[in-house]
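Issue 218. Parser rejects a valid record. Input:
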Amino acid sequence: MKRNAILVAVACLFAIAFAHVSSAQGDSKIGGSWDATIHAPDKTMSEQWMFKQDGMKITGTAKGDKGELPIEGTIEGTVFRGLVTDGDQHYQVHLTVDGDDMDGTIRMGKNEFLLMLKKSK
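Output the parser choked on:
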């Protein structure tokens, strides 16, 4: 009985380790143009975001009412975390990638807004 319990425990550890390794190798590909929509309480803003990807490192621009702002971040699996820089301001971005869609939030100062991106055609 103890032997079976030990074998099951070892098998579970291998399964967890394998799942972690395979998810780390499966980083989403987000390079290219995206149509971004920021949902603020008083208005909806549309922007064009462009990403360049080098492995897990992401760079790019967010083009909107304020012109073009630089984006830097990383992608791990299906999660993108980055910063949009606007002068002295830094807006935190947290997105989940689902194929040609991404959704999450952008934190601008003390405010956090819904952010949705759709791959441009």
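Fixed in the parser; the record now loads. Confidence is low (pLDDT under 50) at residues 19-24.
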